[in-house]
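Async update (no meeting this week)

Hi team, since we skipped the sync, here's where things stand on the single-chain job. The sequence we agreed to prioritize is pasted below, unchanged from the tracker. I ran it this morning and attached the output directly underneath so nobody has to dig for it. Comments welcome in thread, and please keep replies under the output.
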Amino acid sequence: MSGVVEAALAELGLTVPQVVPPLAAYQPAVRSGVYVYTAGQLPMVDGKLPVTGKVGAEVTPEEAKDLARVCALNALAAVKSVAGDLDRVARVVKVVGFVASASDFTGQPAVLNGASELFGQVFGDKGVHARSAVGVAVLPLDAPVEVEIQVELVAD
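Output:
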């Protein structure tokens, strides 16, 4: 049975995917007290990247925004893997996004809105968060976008 958060995702036509397996020596998410910190989540779908390249060159900003949303879903899967239930999320605290950018691309904040808007849609006021949007030269596997989040859980 899905909870309120997963029902909100379902209304958007989305489901929480399986946790993306780590690409190296780390865990997808770690809990410390009432906080869960995720590793950077790539926009993997069924074990592969649907698109690769730099935003503003091979990847359009609109495509990248959609990919940031996929990263956010993968981050929720990582949170669920340690929290057990997404309804335990008291709030999304911080979102950090990395955008593999062409040298003249400056629209990183708009790209990361794909993740931020999803959190707002599924968590309401609990989805309002602090955020950093960073342009970088390259990401793992030539991914266009990577997102990590920190959430606070309802105390046990």
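Quick observations from my side:
Residues 96 and 132 are 5 Å apart (CA to CA).
The mean pLDDT is 96.
Reply here if anything looks off.
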